[in-house]
Amino acid sequence: MMLLAALAIGLIAGFGAVLFRGMIGGFHNLFFLGQLSFDYDANVHTPASPWGFWIIGVPVLGAVGVAFLVKTFAPEAKGHGVPEVMEAIYYHEGKIRPVVAAVKSVASALSIGSGGSVGREGPIIQIGAAFGSTVGQVIAMPVRQRAILIAAGAGGGIAATFNTPLGGIVFAIELMLPYVSPLSLLPVALSCVTATYIGRFYFGLLPAFNVPGLAQLEGHGIQLWFLPCFVVFGLLMGLVSAAMVRSIYWFEDLFDAMPGNYYTRHMSGMLLVGLIMLGFLSYSSAWFGQPNHYYIQGVGYATILDILRNDLTAVGFLLVLSLAKLLVTCLTLGSGASGGVFSPALFIGAALGAAAGSGLSQLFPNLGVSPAQFAYVGMAAMIGGTTGAAITGTIMVFEMTRDYAVILPVIVTVVLAGAIRHWLSAPTIYTLKLLRRGHVVPQGLQAWMGEQRAENVMTSNFVRFTEAEATDKNAVRQALLVGQVVLLIGSDHQVCGVIEAWSQADSLAERPVAPLASHVIVKPEERLHEVLRRMDQAEARVALVTQGAPSGGQGEVVGIISERQIAVMARATARLMGG
């Protein structure tokens, strides 16, 4: 049953990718060229629109459509989509509403087709994941199997839209699968293979960025003595990755604080995107000596291909492109668009990498390293750095370029970029959105339960009794019988004991009530593994979650973590992880 379901999901993910790219092409040709056509190659620059100056209104029109769809039918379709899928796996028993797939596909196609700076991967992941969830709900199955089908749909979508079957599988492993085993990988692999065959039938066998010069392995690759340059570059890309993660949500808060509503905020953000887009079309030649193109609109693959072909090597212009792409991405997503973050990250990484490579080549002409190779490394570093999926970034960019000559610098740079980003901003571009909602999900292949924050595990169902009130054992037992935890408050107004029912009501009535004398004090943001370590050291059975603690004081108790809450969390984890 699981294999048949995975096959069906792979078919839907593959055809979904084809349909989605067709919708992008239809909207793009209609908005930019006034033509009713679905024929669109994102790797070729769009010619100047017949609308002239009024091209700035195209992103605004797209924003109206996106806001209507999201606000009316599916708020989950707003943003880049992957956090919503992760939240469904870990917090909603793998349940995603089927309407999300339809709304996400149309809204994202509108965003990208009208010039919004977002990518294709977030929507296609949400489309495949929504169908996997639907299959998992129609067929009665445990939560853990439904989560596998969601990962299969997400991986299949990635594999089909980018022609990266290995990248799809690894993406599912690093970011979607709650646990990894041969049995959990089999449906994911089947879905990715099926989806890739469908994608190749329609889009061909060539990689996403077909640059024959990159795919030729000559000589010995990058020399060992040159690796320190990539170490420095990895540190730089870590800084940029952290800046991208934080800036997108800073812009989101900025737009949320603006007066007006979703429509006016999104339209204002996209108006700025239209102005920047028009600026590149009008002044690239006059100001930078480069051909006049829109450059930063949509997925930006045409510009990436120019960089990989070494057609764009001017350091100043590349830096302007990278900064402009970061700005328009923040404006697009921050104001409320629908779309992914892979493509902007690839663009920024390619532009910064080419700028670094071109600058070094000008300073040291005999180095023998081309700007395109640095661009390839930068693309992988930005994917790995922003998403926290280092292996996915390494493998996907390799599959998209087929350049194996610089695979060793790629590995070094991606890992360093991820580490620096984690040091500066522990959450990834996906998990930060969920943390802002108070939800913790795994980052990479880590234990999910131990990374939960105390506030996500604690119970707030407690009642306070003074020591005098606690002498009324009937009142205490009554509170325990309805599931409340009793806090004993001492004469100093501090908690001096905790009482929790551990037996059935009939036996509890025959037991003497006695407080648990040993407890520890923790903060809401502390991780569960740290809470458990402190409880073990103190031989305590209860942790009091407090906030606003004065110096030397206890603070206000906002929740309690006892062995019962830990057991509940363990059971939920076991259901998800296959235990």
Keywords:
24 helices, three-stranded mixed sheet, about 575 residues, mainly alpha, single chain
Set out the fold topology.
Layout (H helix, E strand, L loop, with lengths): L1 H32 L23 H16 L9 H10 L6 H16 L7 H18 L4 H20 L2 H12 L5 H22 L8 H4 L11 H30 L5 H27 L12 H8 L6 H20 L7 H22 L7 H17 L2 H12 L5 H18 L6 H5 L12 H4 L2 H4 L4 E5 L6 H9 L3 E5 L5 E5 L5 H4 L10 E4 L5 H11 L3 E6 L8 E7 H15 L2
Parallel strand pairs: 1-2, 4-5
Antiparallel strand pairs: 2-3, 5-6
Identify the overall geometry.
globular
Counted by DSSP, the helix tally is 24
**What is the radius of gyration?**
27 Å
Mean pLDDT: 85
Computed structural class = mainly alpha
Q: Hey, roughly how much beta strand do the residues contain?
A: 5-15%
In helices, the fraction of residues equals 55-70%
Low-confidence stretches: 502-514
Distance between the termini: 20 Å
Order of helices and strands: HHHHHHHHHHHHHHHHHHHHEHEEHEHEEH
